[in-house]
DNA sequence: GTCTATAAGTCGATAGAC
DNA sequence: GTCTATCGACTTATAGAC
């Protein structure tokens, strides 16, 4: 219960509908623009145009460009981790878990390429703004996945491999389908990747991962 | 022989020793700075400081920032292709060829991380400045590697896989060791990657690739 | 909360002395 | 060829009317 339920509209925190709507709009637009040009390469004007608001309004909701950048990154990092802990879990089989994980990561690259690219941009620039996320959240996350891989290995369900570098490889392959999309499309001679390209990519990655799994009967044997 | 071996110093093209020295210095410095911040995020001042020259001198050798950016990219693209055609060649075995290729790519990530990152930065930003390279040079390069993979497959030396996406995966994994180095180091709890980390990475990637190779006797069986 | 107009500062590029 | 000093365009951020 709020301490003073008087007739005065609760003003303790600014949570009006227009505010929520606008900040959401701005953050989405900012993700796109920051993804393409990074922090220093982005102009507040571009974000203003992308969100159909006057530049001053952006500054009203986010005091500085850096504040907006931090907020944009923040909303992205949770999504980036996604369902990893759901799929890479010891109560699943490696086949099921790895397939689910790879498909989820490919889905993220397809549906939120800008989020992936913004994270990549930040890492390329030194990762100063995600340092805490990397050494706290992400490191613990990797430790937990590591335990799952080791459990699989000890149960004889998966070949022995360096679990951390294995995860690095999975990240690298799946994120490439967002980050260097333009390179892939150019090589394939297309304006952009299609659903089939993502499917073939998923298939190819699964094939590489399968080297660590024990030989299994064909999935849909007759 | 020059057409006019007179006493006048040949001035047809500007090729003096100081010029060659300075341009080389500037290009090296520019690679580092552009790699971290991209074209729009880089200040000519930073390049000037990184190359220990007054800003005006940079403009003397490269008229505009964009000219310098193009020149920096140009010197990089050849190196990026590297020895690929030497290793991924039909007169090698897949084992030997893939190992050599992966080791060469990892070596590049280790020795020239800035080159890799600058290319990544450019692709993230849309790849406008490497468009011709992508659709001409790189596309032909991929077609040739594709033929090698197919030859290996038809000779029964390698499992059937999509050759282009397979190459995408190899690029992604090896370049990650340059591009997201900062993420890897943070997860591993180190200030930077060591030689052993690159070795473990190479090993892990080889392990994943081996799923496509026929079961072979242990490399150094007794 | 919204938006125009502008202040304050930064950056690419060049003039011009040496 | 080298380098200082500076111009002019652009960009972040804010003041202040509505």
Automatic annotation (TrEMBL), chains A, B:
Key words of the record: DNA-binding
Residue ranges crossing the lipid bilayer per the database entry: none
Xref: SUPFAM superfamilies: Homeodomain-like, Tetracyclin repressor-like, C-terminal domain
All copies of domain HTH tetR-type, residue ranges: 20-80
Record InterPro entries: Homeodomain-like_sf, HTH-type_TetR-like_transc_reg, HTH_TetR, Tet_transcr_reg_TetR-rel_C_sf, Tscrpt_reg_YcdC_C
Disordered: region residues: 1-22
DNA-binding residue intervals: 43-62
Pfam families (UniProt xref): TetR_C_3, TetR_N
Protein name: TetR/AcrR family transcriptional regulator
Organism classification: Bacteria, Pseudomonadati, Pseudomonadota, Alphaproteobacteria, Acetobacterales
């Amino acid at each position: 219960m709020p301490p003073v339920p008087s007739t005065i509209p609760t003003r303790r925190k600014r949570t009006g509908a227009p505010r929520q709507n606008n900040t959401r709009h701005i953050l989405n637009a900012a993700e796109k623009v920051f993804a393409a040009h990074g922090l220093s390469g982005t102009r507040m004007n571009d974000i203003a145009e992308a969100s159909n608001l006057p530049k001053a309004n952006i500054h009203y909701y986010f005091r500085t460009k850096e504040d907006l950048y931090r907020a944009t990154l923040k909303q992205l990092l949770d999504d980036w981790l996604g369902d990893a802990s759901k799929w890479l879990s010891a109560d699943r089989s490696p086949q099921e878990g790895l397939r689910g994980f790879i498909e989820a990561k490919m889905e993220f690259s397809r549906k939120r390429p800008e989020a992936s690219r913004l994270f990549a941009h930040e890492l390329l620039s030194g990762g100063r703004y995600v340092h805490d996320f990397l050494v706290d959240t992400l490191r613990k996350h990797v430790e937990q996945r590591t335990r799952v891989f080791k459990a699989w290995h000890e149960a004889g369900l998966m070949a022995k491999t360096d679990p951390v570098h294995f995860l690095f490889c999975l990240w690298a392959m799946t994120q490439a389908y967002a980050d260097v999309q333009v390179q892939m499309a150019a090589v394939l001679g297309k304006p952009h990747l299609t659903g089939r390209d993502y499917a073939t990519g998923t298939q190819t990655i699964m094939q590489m991962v399968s080297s660590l799994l024990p030989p299994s009967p064909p999935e849909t044997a007759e």
